[in-house]
Amino acid sequence: MYFKCGDKEMAISVLKASSVNDVASWNVMLNGFLGVGDIQSLLHLFRSMSVRDVISWNPVLTAYTKFGRMEDAQRMFDSMPTRNLVSWNGLIAGYVKAGDADKALELFSV
């Protein structure tokens, strides 16, 4: 909610004050940082997480594709322990957006 209002500092404060610090809470923060375009905070938080699930990896992948950093996106995708439909679609869409239809089709065919 705070991210949608543009108050990321309050969102961070609420999470720090919360008695619930699980991967789901951190994933909300990752997506919040992605939503406001704060990629540095997104990457910092992701790197500091000791426990991640597939939902944790997808915002980072999306951030890389959003800014045309396809080599980073591909490295992230390759290092993901688990991928889901969002992961695959995100990488394929990133290659399409970057103008690399051949790579997108190659991934689609896997």
Automatic annotation (TrEMBL):
One MF term in the entry's GO annotations: RNA binding
Keywords for this protein: Repeat
InterPro entries: PPR_At4g14850-like_plant, PPR_rpt, TPR-like_helical_dom_sf
Highest taxon above the source species: Eukaryota
Biological process per Gene Ontology, one example term: RNA modification
Pfam families listed in its UniProt record: PPR
Record flagged with keyword Repeat: yes
PPR repeat boundaries on the chain: 53-87
Keyword Repeat: yes
UniProt-recorded name of the protein: Pentatricopeptide repeat-containing protein
Organism: Zostera marina
Taxonomic path: Eukaryota, Viridiplantae, Streptophyta, Embryophyta, Tracheophyta
